[in-house]
Amino acid sequence: MKLTEYAWMLDDPARIEAFRRAIAQRVRPGNVVVEVGAGLGTYSFFACQAGAARVYAIEDSVAGALEELARRQGFGDRLRVIRENSLDAALPERADWIIFEDFNSAFLGGGLAPVVRDAAARLLAPGGGWIPSAAEVWGALVEVPESWGSIARWRREAEHLKGLDYRPLAGWLLNSAHKGRCMPEALVTAPRLLRRYRLGEPGEAYDLSGSWEDAARRTGSVHALCAWFRLELAEGVWLDNTPGADETVYEQEIFTLPEALPVEAGGAVRWSLQGIPEREGGHVWWKWGAEAGGRAYEGNTFAGLPLRLESLADRSAEKIPQPGRRQEIMRFVLGCADGRLTQGEIAARVRAAFPEDFPAERHALRFVAGILRS
Ligand SMILES: C[S@@+](CC[C@H](N)C(=O)[O-])C[C@H]1O[C@@H](n2cnc3c(N)ncnc32)[C@H](O)[C@@H]1O
Q1: Residue nearest to atom 12 of ligand 1 (CA)
Q2: What is the CATH number of the domain that holds 178?
Q3: What is the CATH number of the domain that holds 81?
Q4: Quick check: is 239 in a domain?
Q5: Domain span at residue 352?
């Protein structure tokens, strides 16, 4: 995420106030708190304000900004910034509370599954708790002709593209999950609770899979499935991005159908949604569909990737790699890193050995630093 995005997230009073209230309610003086993915540190600072004895703010991306902001709050030794990924972090003590906020608009996003599982096993004290403690995923079928139309229009030849063929774009985009704002009037079916998770629950896979049948509230067209979350941050303190609730940066997650699906008031509509996190890395693959009046449409985020077969084959276990020049230079760099030479000295050797690859010393230095960064 860019710094501008953190600032944009900070400018969200509903979200910040909900977390502030929850932290003030949960964290007791003397508690140890870990924030996994602290960003600009706001929630870690709230934990200090609530009297935590120590707060470990773990962040692997904007840690420079976090350190400077942390220094300014004057919490001294009570606040420790840990500049690494939580999966690699070894802390001197376990937490009474883990604060975590790295979700997409349908909750299941980013590296949630592996990160939460790891933190629950290694960073939380027995009897400790999570903020949020639970999350619900909700969904409904929606009529959103304008946003759907702005994607599907790529199926037609665009006037301003002067004969260029961009039609495949519609297929990729219609098979993508879109973040957007959905109005309550757009809901063709009643909101439905799809799944409830307890954060840190052992064995939880943080996946989602279900199919449901609803009656259409009115005659119209279904263009998409809309999903959102409700986070239970503390007792009586919720943060949600339900259509029509206080606006937050989260908006909603919208899964578009390839065609508008006509529905009759009171008529049955069957629909399904599946979210499958990758085992490592936590990327979530989505699959969805809806069916009414004998028509059925579906989409999935795998089909939303403009994949080349060659790039898939690149990852295959059967491929026998043929190291090229880049790998040769990398091997040379690794051979030079003996624990004594500086990066500058290694860069000079690399440049002397491969002069045509590095027109200037700084090019070699950047390459060496990139390879040797742990
Ligand atoms: C949506 S931001 C929220 C940040 C924070 N709550 C705030 O208000 O600024 C999620 C942050 O978590 C960080 N993050 C996600 N997983 C992480 C991990 N396993 N270890 C360290 N940082 C992580 C990301 O770099 C990102 O800064």
Answers
A1: 37
A2: 2.70.160.11
A3: 3.40.50.150
A4: yes
A5: 325-372
SS (H, E, C) 341-359: CCHHHHHHHHHHHCHHHCC
Q: Do residues 303 and 330 both lie within one domain? A: no
Segment 159-183 shows an average pLDDT of 94
Residue 308 is predicted with a pLDDT of 76
So what's the pLDDT on residue 262? Answer: 98
Q: What is the pLDDT of residue 374?
A: 62
Is the pLDDT at 307 greater than 90, yes or no? no
CA of 282 relative to ligand 1 center, distance in Å: 14
Claim to verify: residue 303 and residue 334 sit in the same structural domain: no
Q: Are residues 61 and 158 in the same domain?
A: no
Measuring CA to CA, how many Å separate 65 from each of 40, 73, 88, 103, 356?
Answer: 7, 13, 21, 21, 38
Coil, helix or strand at residue 363: helix
Mean pLDDT, the chain, integer:
95
Name the domain count of the chain: 3
φ/ψ of 281, rounded to 5, equals 85, -30
Q: Which sign, positive or negative, has the C-alpha torsion 178, 14, 111, 212?
A: negative
Half-sphere exposure of 43 (CA within 13 A, CB side): 33
Whether residues 245 and 336 fall in one domain: no
Separation of CA 98 and ligand 1 centre (Å): 13
Question: Does 119 reside within a domain?
Answer: no
Instruction: Give 259 Cα–ligand 1 centroid separation in angstroms.
Output: 36
Give the span between the Cα atoms of 91 and 143, in whole angstroms: 49
Domain end (from 261, 281, 309)? 309
Q: What is the 3-state secondary structure (H, E, C) of 80-137?
A: EEECCCHHHCCCCCCEEEEEECCCCCCCCCCCHHHHHHHHHHHCEEEEEEEECCEEEE
Residue 168 lies in a domain: yes
Residue closest via CA to ligand 1's atom 27 equals 39
Contact criterion met (CB below 8 Å) for 275 and 110: no
Q: Please give all residues whose beta carbon lies within 6 A of any atom in ligand 1, as ranges.
A: 1, 6, 9, 36-40, 42-43, 58-62, 85-87, 101-102, 111, 115
pLDDT on residue 316: 86
β-partners of residue 252 are 180
Residue 266 lies in a domain: yes
Same domain, 218 and 246: yes
How much distance in Å is there from the Cα of 39 to the middle of ligand 1? 5
81-119 residue pLDDT tens: 999 999 999 999 999 999 999 999 999 987 899 999 999
